[in-house]
Amino acid sequence: MAMKIRLARGGSKKRPFYRIVAADSRMPRDGRYIEKLGTYNPLLPKDSDERVKMNVERIQYWMSEGAQVTDRVSRFLEAAGILEKKTRNNPKKALPGQKAQDRAEEKLAKDSTEAPAEEAVAEEAPAEETANEEAPAEETANEEAPAEETANEEAPAEETTKEEAPAEEEKG
Questions:
Q1: Who's near 33: CB < 8 A, 6+ residues apart?
Q2: Do 164 and 170 contact (CB within 8 A), yes or no?
Q3: With the C-alpha atoms ordered 146, 151, 156, 160, is the resulting torsion angle positive or negative?
Q4: Alpha-carbon gap, residue 38 to 72, rounded angstroms
Q5: Mean pLDDT by 10-residue block, N- to C-terminus, for the chain (172 residues)?
Q6: How far apart are CA 142 and CA 160, in angstroms?
Q7: From 3.90.70.10, 3.30.1360.70, 3.30.1320.10, 3.50.50.60, which CATH number describes the 3-80 domain?
Q8: How crowded is residue 162: how many other Cβ atoms within 10 Å of its Cβ?
Q9: What is the three-class DSSP state of 66?
Q10: CA–CA dist 136, 32 (Å, integer)
Q11: In this structure, are residues 91 and 69 in contact, taking their beta carbons and an 8 Å threshold?
């Protein structure tokens, strides 16, 4: 017979109260148990002595008989200094669940499809401003040096991008 020391829930709806019991592992959670070993009232403050009450001698007896302790009861026993603290490693504890991750991906995809249209409008306005600001500078340069005019005509795309880049940096 596999024995467990576990919590059996009592109390009314939304007002939980637990008994710490030694029970056959095949019995239902709130069903038949062999011995009541203590109580746990989660509604009380954490520093209250009444929150967790245990009959330590009987718990040690059942553990010596081979009873397995559930995780929640083992935490109570660790807090009381009866069991050694286990090192628990749950690196995914703070991560959102699968559905929340799916919703976040959908929202990101939706935002990324809408964002380029908004960014394009935002980018066009500064580009027009920089073109207006640079036009007088280009005209004066062209009037002063006719040799540069031929260079601008041969490769206008390269030079305009080179000239626009510093103008954008100066604004930022």
A1: 8, 19, 21, 22, 23, 27
A2: no
A3: negative
A4: 13
A5: 90 93 90 92 90 91 91 89 80 86 89 64 51 50 50 50 52 50
A6: 14
A7: 3.30.1320.10
A8: 10
A9: coil
A10: 93
A11: no
